[in-house]
């Protein structure tokens, strides 16, 4: 590729409070209130992303061996589309809303809902889709008129450095700041008061974020992971199941919060589903995933070891794949036949290329098992006929559902978890809504006093005329 990607430099702990106070001051000086100012920022941001597309691709290759196709679809291209969608719609989204039908007297008070920015906000990103998941929420935060402090994940260091370069090349330096670092730097950020914190990552860190926000009553969005089930009924097409489920696990080598964690497959279909996985793997990677340019690597040694011990400890039988190479941080897409939902393959989020299959007697058993592992996963993937899918949806809970598919989330639909997979949602219009305060405004004209006087004491006899 030939482009030079900068090294990640952590921000000094002393500098952090000063940077936050600059961002807060910029908000209090109303610098981001003007919608045209926000649009200029977003347009500059768009061109900076475009200008750095090669560096984005190189950083994703260095951090995750992410294939160029996946970078263009799910990182740079995704962000560019998001900025275009936002800038096209912003004038419409910021418009005051009229209140719904009401009493005549209230109508004269012109009740409206303004979309006010929240203030100075913090975005903390995850490593797996570093650009999309860190800068995606930032697009909405800028559009809504907030000043923003951005903390990319240190686990994708090259991507974090390129994000900083893009932000510093395009955005107003008083309003938007990138802070780099690991746990101590994030803790220093969390010690400050924010007007909203948007966190993408694991549930354990999510709890730390929510706890740190509580003393300041700071609202939080938690975009967490999930132990996402796929339910494959007897009416499903095994080939479709295998191709789509394999795709969801080879994308970023399974380091994808929406990919299925385990499959509950109707017993008579299990052999066919396993065979179709083998066929699909051969079709997608004729020479094997290891030598293919279209397969990512595990982000680092810690995650590699975590995944290795998951596979070492399973009581299941490996039906496909199972090879790994620590030096290369390579783990092959691996299908494992397990005999209990309590197998560690099902009870932990793998965040890797594992496809555990648990045979079930019928749809009712599948639903009951899915509801038992994690009652509220981020995604749920039913495969079957219309009636099966409808039954599954109406007897489960999850952040989202992709019927006869996996991992898929259409970018204009709200995206977020429920219960243990988090709270709050963004994407499309929700990316703007999540960053504004819907502020109700009423104006009581002086001439309305004759009508309003009904509210003043003495109350005697007034109820009858109310
Ligand atoms: P993580 O929770 O380890 O880290 C996320 C962020 O938190 C990073 O920026 C990191 O610096 C910071 N952090 C880590 N430890 C911290 C601590 N002790 N105190 C304060 N900050 C800390 O998550 P990850 O490994 O980057 O991502 C994997 C997890 O994120 C998976 O569970 C996955 O499902 C989830 N995820 C969710 C979504 C979503 O949109 N719902 C998207 C991607 C990933």
Largest sheet: 7 strands, mixed
Share of residues in strands: 15-25%
How many runs of DSSP E, i.e. beta strands?
18
Label the structural class.
Answer: alpha/beta
Q: Give the overall silhouette.
A: globular
Sequence stretches where pLDDT stays below 50 over 5 or more residues: none
Number of contiguous helices: 17
Query: Which cofactor or ligand species appear?
Result: nicotinamide-adenine-dinucleotide
Distance between the termini: 75 Å
- Mean of the pLDDT scores? 96
Q: What oligomeric state is this?
A: single chain
Side by side, the strands of the main sheet go 10-13-14-9-8-15-16
Calculate Rg over CA atoms: 25 Å
Active site: 223, 257
Family: Belongs to the aldehyde dehydrogenase family.
Keywords: Carotenoid biosynthesis, NAD, Oxidoreductase
Organism: Penicillium atrosanguineum
Account of the 3D structure:
The structure is a single chain. The chain has 17 helices and 18 strands. The chain is α/β, with parallel strands linked by helices and 466 residues long. The strands form 4 sheets. A 7-stranded mixed beta sheet has the order 10-13-14-9-8-15-16, with helices on both faces. A 6-stranded mixed beta sheet has the order 5-4-3-6-7-17, sandwiched between helices. Strand 15, helix 15 and strand 16 (400-401) form a beta-alpha-beta unit. Bound molecules: nicotinamide-adenine-dinucleotide. Residues 124-128, 133, 151, 153-155, 182-183, 186-187, 200-202, 205, 208, 223-225, 257, 349, 351, 378, 417, 422 line the site of nicotinamide-adenine-dinucleotide (NAD).
